[in-house]
Specification:
This protein is an alpha/beta fold. It has 15 helices and twelve strands. Helix 4 runs antiparallel to helix 5. The radius of gyration is 23 Å and the shape is flat.
């Protein structure tokens, strides 16, 4: 299962957010730096309203959503690349995840200590990015020394790697993350072997105060700090930002669904921002969902973008991929509009697809196999 790591400076709400989105108390949330030392891991279900609609059509006995894994990583401080604080551990942990959720504090509260002494989300982002970039520069320097020798000896693969490193180094020296450097497809393949931290896809979670959430969800730019983060993330990372109040969501952990809904309504909102965040992380990881539905269950299945029909079948069972014949597919929208599989077939919306079909998000599928 692909992982997204929750990162940020100490006391910006990382562990509170982790508790919220994993609906757990696994991560201790306390008012002092380095509360999180060993990374906490939790499985997060991906909200998908389509599942209930399909279940209603099929009369399913149960609904099974898809999921991703989140990792709550130790807070980073300035100088982490040189080992300050828990820097070495942070960098090691983040190297293992596939994407980054960077939590940024966008609220003032004198009772909650800020590592840097004041609330400044852009400074916080730059501190983290600088440490990731410095770590990447060190990684490239070590690798360049090794590969340059082989490149001089005529090793074509080493020559290609050195060329990419020579392109990356000045970009990193300018304080720009590796992710924002334009590379050819061949260069991207070579760069993937460098395992650069600043090359990981990132989404920014703007953690706002409870009383500011409703306004920020309606118009994110109405919050000055959130507006700054959104602009910075888009211009410097080409990244998305979401607004969230981790504290509100954590307060709902113990509430029943009806009580949680009533609590949110009292605040003038329908969601704390967690749904958008989880769905954003899912997209960030390059994941897509296809759906199956019947009397026994309605279920969401995770595939990577670009997966072909046999590969999608293999997610259910490896034998399905090996013995794939064809897939019967109808789009979610058509199925809901027409009201049943039989009606979809009669309307010509249920179609047969073969081995070269590229799956689309929201495909409702029945696989036919020879086994």
């Amino acid at each position: 299962m692909l992982q997204a790591g929750i990162v940020g400076l100490p006391n910006v709400g990382k562990s509170t957010l982790f508790n919220a989105v994993t609906r757990s108390r696994n991560a201790e949330a306390a008012n002092y730096p380095f509360c999180t030392i060993e990374p906490n891991k939790g499985i997060v279900t991906v909200p998908d309203e389509r599942l209930q609609a399909l279940s209603d059509i099929s009369g399913s006995q149960k609904i099974i959503p898809t999921a991703i894994e989140l990792v709550d990583i130790a807070g980073l401080v300035e100088g982490a690349a040189e080992g300050a604080g828990l820097g070495n551990k942070f960098l090691s942990n983040i190297r293992e995840v596939d994407a980054i959720v960077q939590v940024v504090r966008c609220f003032e509260n004198d009772d909650i200590i800020h590592e840097m002494g004041s609330v400044d989300p852009l400074r916080d982002i730059e501190v983290i990015n600088t440490e990731l970039i410095l770590a990447d520069i060190a990684t490239l320097a070590k690798r360049h020394e090794n590969r340059a020798k082989k490149a001089k000896q005529g090793d074509k693969e080493a020559q290609a790697e050195v060329a990419v490193m020579d392109k990356l180094r000045p970009h990193l020296d300018d304080g720009k993350p590796a992710l924002t450097l334009e590379l050819t497809d061949e260069e991207k393949i070579a760069a993937a072997d460098f395992f650069l931290l600043s090359a990981k896809p990132t989404i920014f979670a703007c953690n706002v105060a409870e009383e500011e959430l409703a306004a920020a969800l309606e118009n994110p730019d109405s919050n000055e700090l959130v507006a700054k983060v959104r602009k910075y993330a888009a211009e410097h990372h080409g990244a998305e930002s979401v607004v969230i109040s981790a504290r509100i969501e954590e307060e709902m952990v113990e509430l029943e669904e009806a009580d949680a809904k009533e609590y949110l309504e009292a605040l003038g909102i329908t969601d704390s921002g967690v749904t958008a965040l989880i769905q954003g992380v899912y997209e960030l990881l390059g994941l897509r969902t296809y759906l199956t539905t019947g009397e026994m269950e309605t279920r969401a299945w995770t595939i990577t973008a670009g997966a072909l029909a046999p590969q999608a079948a293999g997610v259910i069972h490896t034998d399905f991929e090996a013995n794939f014949i064809r897939a019967e597919i109808v789009s979610y929208e058509d199925l809901v509009e027409l009201g049943s599989i039989s009606a979809s077939r009669d309307a010509g919306k249920l179609r047969a697809e073969g081995k070269e079909y590229e799956m689309k998000d929201g495909d409702v599928v029945n696989f036919l196999t020879s086994a």
